[in-house]
Each structure stands twice: as structure tokens, then as C-alpha cells.
Amino acid sequence: MAELLRTHPLTAWTDAFERLPDTVGITVEPFVAMVDVRLGTIGPEASAALGVDLPTAPGTWVPAGTGRAVWLGPDEWLLTSTTEAPEELEARVRAAVAGLGGSATDVSAQRIGLRLTGARVRDVLVKGCSIDLHPRVFSRGSSAQTTLGQAGVVLLALSDAGDDVVVLVRASFAGYLADWLLDAALEFTTPIS
């Protein structure tokens, strides 16, 4: 049987992203396995079973092996892995949380990641996002579920300076958001003086 090749929905935008200056860099993140985890009570048992201390503070994420654990709600997390296949991650996480009354659902095909880097990242994001992205508030380890240009997204701060952010957007909105980001970055394509 022939294997189906995955085609990234933002392949057509790669050239436009590459033409952006370093002040606002946009790159398409490779596909990663993602599992939505629901778990009513977390503690040492859950941490030991999952191999990561799930973040308990709202709006945070932590490194988790080759991926991340992102707080999405009081009993919900997004776990990602860059090395496991989606079905492997889901099976592993499901086995870890099933005895604790939890659930795990593969959502790998749901979101696409875009990485924004450069001195003008916050300037671009604030054009379509109403949350406070100042580094005092939104620094490495921070996350937020919000809207960006009217598309629902999850933002992950990868640096303390606010110049490195991952945007997770539903795959069906990826093209729209790519166009929106290119338009929002247009005024910042000249160097900072």
C-alpha cells in the first residue's frame, strides 16, 4: 500500500516568509505530535506516569522531553513531541493517565505552528491581539489562548525578551493567519534605526 505524504498547509507561503527581514522572521514549524490531556487531579503520580511536571499555573508551558506541556485549562493540557508519532504519543499518554481517571486525545492534525522571531515580533502581534505581550508579563514559559487577527491561537513565549514566539493555529485557519501576519509585518520590513 502506498504511503500518503503529508503536505504542510503553509508550503505556498514559505517564499514570502523567507523574504521578510530579521526584524520580523516567520518560519513554519514542522509537524509535531500533539495530545490533549484531561486530568482532574495532578500530583506526583501523574508527573511520574507522564515523565513531566504538568504546569499548574494558568497561562504557562514547560519543556517536556522533546516537546512541551502547555496549560490550557484547570484540568486540560496540550502535550507535544517532536520525536514520537502521534499514535505513539497518544497511546503512551493514555496509558499513563487512564489509571488516574484521565483521558488523552490525539489532536496532531488540529494545529499548525508558526515561529515568529525578531525585534518587531510584539509589534506585529499587538496589531491583532488584545493581551499584554510586554516581557514583564509574557516571557519565556508564558502561554495564552487568545485571538490573533480574529483567528483562535495559542501563543507560547520562547524568550524573555518577547522576540521569539510560537503561534499555534488551527490548520483550517493557517492560510488566513499567514496572510494576516505578512500584512501586519509589512510596515516593519525596514530596519530599525
From TrEMBL:
InterPro entries: SoxG, TrmE/GcvT-like. Gene3D superfamilies: Heterotetrameric sarcosine oxidase, Probable tRNA modification gtpase trme, domain 1. This is Sarcosine oxidase subunit gamma.
